[in-house]
Amino acid sequence: MKKNILYAQSGGVTPVINATACGVIETARQNKEKIGNVYAGKDGIIGILREELIDTSRENKTAIAGLKHTPGGAFGSCRYKLKGIEENRREYERLIEVFRAHDIGYFLYNGGGDSSDTAYKVSQIGKKMGFSVQCIGVPKTIDNDLPVTDNCPGFGSVAKYIAVSIQEASLDVESMASSSTKVFVLEVMGRHAGWIAAAAGLAGTEEGDPPHIILFPEVPFKQREFLKKVKYAVENYGYCTIAVSEGVRDTKGKFLADAGTRDAFGHAQLGGVAPVVANLVREKLGYKYHWAVSDYLQRSARHVASGTDVEQAYAVGEAAVNLALEGKSGVMPIIRRVSNNPYRWEIGETSLARVANREKMLPKSYISADGFGITPAARRYLSPLIQGEDYPPYGPDGLPKYVRMKKILASKKLPAFEV
User: Whole-model pTM?
Assistant: First the structure.
């Protein structure tokens, strides 16, 4: 008897998470003899708990294909972490009830470390409740901090956006520096791992090229050394461009931008580190500055996505369905790097237990000796991930032609559930 797939998006979206959704749905449709329908959780796991399941069979072939070049989360995502099974058994039991009611045999959860943990726990509770459901984690995170996999879908496009933005903004600052702004600070995402900040370093290839300073979460912020570096850049190059990760901490381990609140996952809510750094430059050195926060722009910039990233994002969605059809559960497709030059990669798999709630930090070997830049090893790792262009189609109005799903829900079969 054919079983249905339930797919859900989780956490912060990426420029290419919908390409993964496209890979899932198109691959499932190519296996109609083995798979029934593909449902998508409306707004992620919350929608599943509420039994709000989007019926993707109501979306036509053209709309599904359009997901490959559309940013955002087409079916909705959320920041909602399920607690441990014993702490909140009712939610896990509700998930199984929803699976049973809609004949779900495969649960594909597209997210980062927390999502991998959820998928792993659901696979465990399914066994305990005597309901067979195959749980597959599908990797996604712009932070690039999932272990085991060489890189994470979503990161390559954000890396490309940040490197391009630093390059372009620096040309602007350089042209005005003699009489105006001398310091530009760009804040990028990355709470604990400095992968995105490191990507900014791809913009510079010669001595004096921007960014002149990169501030990593892995390197404690030392004010004196930082200001010395800023002054050197301004005096020698005429200006200074700085890329700073949101998760930079001082020597005592406190976030420079800690707002004193927590998000839905229990993480410290950060209030913006760019203005903190920029004000320090003004107060101590007196330089005129500008700062910007890349924020949602970096993770939604599909117009400048990495061709490599798009291809890999689709591939992990396709692989997730194939793993399910092979009878696998509690696993996640991963990207394996075969070679750097030429760059070649392949899809492998790993256990969710090896991925759940674990973070991959930027290696020390990727950070320059002074702590303010990247090494040749980092460049060799990062460069292939931003290669290639995959522009979305543009309409007569000069704007990208992105798609929106109808989001028609399947009929509910269970009593209401309060999340």
Answer: 0.95
The verdict on 264 and 340 lying in the same domain is: no
157-199 pLDDT per residue, tens:
999 999 999 999 999 999 999 999 999 999 999 989 999 999 9
- Is 200 inside a domain boundary? yes
143 classed as catalytic: yes
DSSP sequence for 304-355: G-BHHHHHHHHHHHHHHHHHHHTT--SEEEEEEEEEETTEEEEEEEEEGGGT
| Total domains, the chain | 2
Residue in the structure block whose two tokens are 């109808």: 406
Distance CA 187, CA 277 (A): 10
Q: How far apart are CA 155 and CA 412, in angstroms?
A: 36
Task: Point out the catalytic residue in the list 143, 145, 309, 390.
Answer: 143
Contact 360, 145 (CB under 8 A): yes
Q: Take residue 283 and report the two structure tokens written for it.
A: 């107060």
Task: List Cβ neighbours of 69 (8 Å cut-off, separation of 6 or more).
Answer: 19, 302, 310, 390, 391, 392, 393, 400, 402
Q: Is residue 374 part of a domain?
A: no
